[in-house]
Design a protein that fits this description.
The protein is an alpha+beta fold and 125 residues long. The protein is built from five helices and three strands; from the N terminus they run αβββαααα.
């Protein structure tokens, strides 16, 4: 097993930022209908920065590990920087080859975080 596969299993079995924030500014749920993965993401924002983020959900090792790694990555970042994140940023974090089906699993957390930021921006207008 490669070190990257071990890292993914580590994040799957002991995900970082697991749970629901008590006080949050955004709360979204996303699902991957093709495999059944589901995530709920809550985040807190202060002065255009993500100060805290948490997630709960059910899913495969790839989606849970990606959520764990991505929530670590975005904590403390400006909303604009996070909004600009792409598929390549997620793949760089995971550092493994993915099939198209597994790619959808890996991108589910980014979809949730993006939706949370969009919901925040719509309430700020």
């Amino acid at each position: 097993m490669s070190i990257y596969q071990e890292l993914i299993l580590d994040h799957y079995h002991s995900p970082h930022n697991s749970g629901v924030l008590q006080k949050y500014d955004a709360d979204v749920s996303v699902a991957n209908s093709s495999c059944g993965d589901k995530l709920r993401i809550t985040l807190k924002v202060r002065q255009e920065k993500i100060t805290d983020i948490a997630f709960t959900g059910e899913g495969c090792a790839i989606s849970i590990a990606a959520a764990s790694m991505l929530t670590d990555e975005v904590k403390g970042k400006d909303l604009e920087a996070v909004t600009g994140m792409t598929k390549d940023d997620v793949l760089k974090l995971l550092n493994i080859q993915l099939t198209p089906t597994r790619l959808r699993c890996a991108l589910l957390p980014l979809e949730g975080i993006s939706k949370a930021i969009l919901s925040l921006k719509s309430t700020m207008l």
